[in-house]
Design brief:
alpha+beta
C-alpha cells in the first residue's frame, strides 16, 4: 500500500507548493491533524476546484501525477478528474501530516467487471479510525466519511458503502449521481494499473471521456453539471436544465459557473456539436 507521497513519482508537495495550495482553497494551515481539519480541507477543495475531463475530451496532454495537477489546478485556472482531484488533495494532506493511502478503485465495476479496476483513484486517511476522503467524484460526498459499511447522508443526498463481490467495498452514489458507484479495497493500491487505465481513458475511442464533455462542480447545497450542451443544477430537492446555445455561451459558462479558464473554448464547442450530429445521424 502507498502512504505519504514519494518524491520519486512526482507525488510529493513542497512547503512552497503547500502554501500556494492552501492559499488557493482559502484555508489556513490546520493546527491539528484531525477529522475537523480534514473535513474543512475536503469542503474547501471541492468548493474551489471543478471536476473536468477536458484533456481527454480534446486530446490535450495529461499526467497522472499530483505535481502535474498542481501546475494545472493551483497555478493555472483549471480543474481535474479523479486522478488529479484526489491526487492533489492527497499530496496536500500528506504534506500537512495526515496519513494518506492512495487506493486503486473501479468506477462501475458492478457492470464492467474487473476491467474497471484502475479507472479511479480514491483516498484512505487514517485518524482515530480510517476515513474515505473522496473529492474525485464531483457529485458525491462533500465531507469525508468513516470507511465502514453502512448508509451515508449528507446535505439531503443518500449514499452508502456496501460489501461487493471478491472482498471489495462499493461506494454507491446518490440516485442522480453520474457515476453510479465505485469499488475499492481498504488496502489495495496499484499505481501501475491506474497509470495504464489513465492512458486508455485519455486516448481510446471507447473511453467515455473522449466521447462526451463532462464538467461538474459542487455548490453550497448540491452541484452543477455540464454534459455536452446541457447544464444541470441539482440539489436534494430540486433539478433544472438549461441548454448551452453557442460557443460564447459555453465560454461564459466555463468562466462564470465553473470558474475555469479553458483554452480554445470555440474548439470545445465545435467538438461537442460534432458529437451531437454524429449521434443524431
Amino acid at each position: 500500500m502507498t502512504h505519504a507521497p514519494s518524491n520519486e513519482n512526482g507525488t510529493a508537495m513542497t512547503a512552497t507548493q503547500l502554501d500556494a495550495y492552501l492559499a488557493r482553497i482559502g484555508v489556513e494551515r490546520p493546527a491539528s491533524v484531525d477529522i475537523h481539519s480534514l473535513s474543512k480541507l475536503h469542503r474547501a477543495h471541492l468548493m474551489t476546484f471543478t471536476w473536468e475531463a477536458l484533456d481527454a475530451f480534446m486530446g490535450w496532454p495529461s499526467s497522472i501525477t499530483p505535481a502535474a495537477a498542481f501546475t494545472k489546478m493551483v497555478e493555472g485556472k483549471r480543474g481535474g478528474w479523479c486522478y488529479e482531484m484526489n491526487g492533489l488533495f492527497g499530496a496536500a494532506l500528506a504534506a500537512l501530516g495526515f496519513r494518506v493511502t492512495r487506493l486503486c478503485g473501479g468506477v462501475n465495476r458492478e457492470t464492467l467487471g474487473d476491467i474497471a479496476i484502475g479507472n479511479h483513484l480514491t483516498l484512505r486517511v487514517d485518524l482515530d479510525r480510517p476515513y474515505l476522503a473522496e473529492v474525485g467524484v464531483a457529485d458525491a460526498i462533500f465531507e469525508p466519511v468513516p470507511l465502514a459499511v453502512g448508509p451515508i447522508s449528507q446535505r439531503g443526498f443518500d449514499f452508502s458503502i456496501m460489501p461487493a463481490e471478491g472482498g471489495w467495498l462499493r461506494f454507491n452514489n446518490h440516485v442522480r449521481g453520474i457515476a453510479k458507484s465505485f469499488d475499492f479495497r481498504r488496502d489495495h493500491s496499484d499505481e501501475a494499473a491506474m497509470a495504464a487505465t489513465h492512458g486508455w481513458l485519455m486516448q481510446d475511442p471507447g473511453s467515455p471521456f473522449t466521447n462526451a464533455l463532462a464538467v461538474l462542480r459542487h455548490t453550497a447545497d448540491g452541484y452543477v453539471a455540464l454534459q455536452n450542451d446541457v447544464l444541470r443544477r441539482v440539489t436534494a430537492n430540486s433539478f433544472s436544465e438549461q441548454r448551452i446555445t453557442s460557443a460564447d455561451h459555453l465560454e461564459d459558462t466555463f468562466a462564470t459557473v465553473f470558474d475555469l479558464d479553458i483554452p480554445q473554448p470555440g474548439r470545445v464547442w465545435e467538438k461537442t456539436q460534432a458529437l451531437g450530429r454524429d449521434k443524431a445521424a
